[in-house]
Amino acid sequence: MDQVRQVFTVDLLERYAAKGRGAITCMAAGNDVIVLGTSKGWIIRHDFGVGDSYDIDLSVGRTGEQSIHRAFVDPGGSHCIATVVGNGGADTYYTHAKWSKPRVLSKLKGLVVNTVAWNRQQITEASTREVILGTDNGQLHEIAVDEKDKREKYMKFLFELAELPEAFMGLQMETASTSNGTRYYVMAVTPTRMYSFTGIGSLDTVFASYLERAVHFMELPGEIPNSELHFFIKQRRAIHFAWLSGAGIYHGGLNFGAQHSSSDGDENFVENKALLNYTKLCEGPEAKPSSLAVSEFHFLVLIGNKVKVLNRISEQIIEELQFDLTSESASRGIIGLCSDASAGLFYAYDQSSIFQVSVNDEGRDMWKVYLDMKEYAAALSNCRDPLQRDQVYLMQAEAAFSTKDFLRAASFFAKINYILSFEEITLKFISANEQDALRTFLLRKLDNLSKDDKCQITMISTWATELYLDKVNRLLLEDDTASENRNSEYQSIIKEFRAFLSDCKDVLDEATTMRLLESYGRVDELVYFASLKEQYDIVVHHYIQQGEAKKALEVLQKPSVPIDLQYKFAPDLIMLDAYETVESWMATKNLNPRKLIPAMMRYSSEPHAKNETHEVIKYLEFCVHRLLNEDPGVHNLLLCLYAKQEDDSALLRFLQCKFGKGRASGPEFFYDPKYALRLCLKEKRMRACVHIYSMMSMHEEAVALALQVDPELAMAEADKVEDDEDLRKKLWLMVAKHIEDILPFFPDFALIDDFKEAICSSLEDYNKQIELLKQEMNDATHGADNIRNDISALAQRYALIDRDEECGVLIFLMF
Question: Where is coiled-coil annotated (predicted)?
Answer without folding.
Answer: 756-790
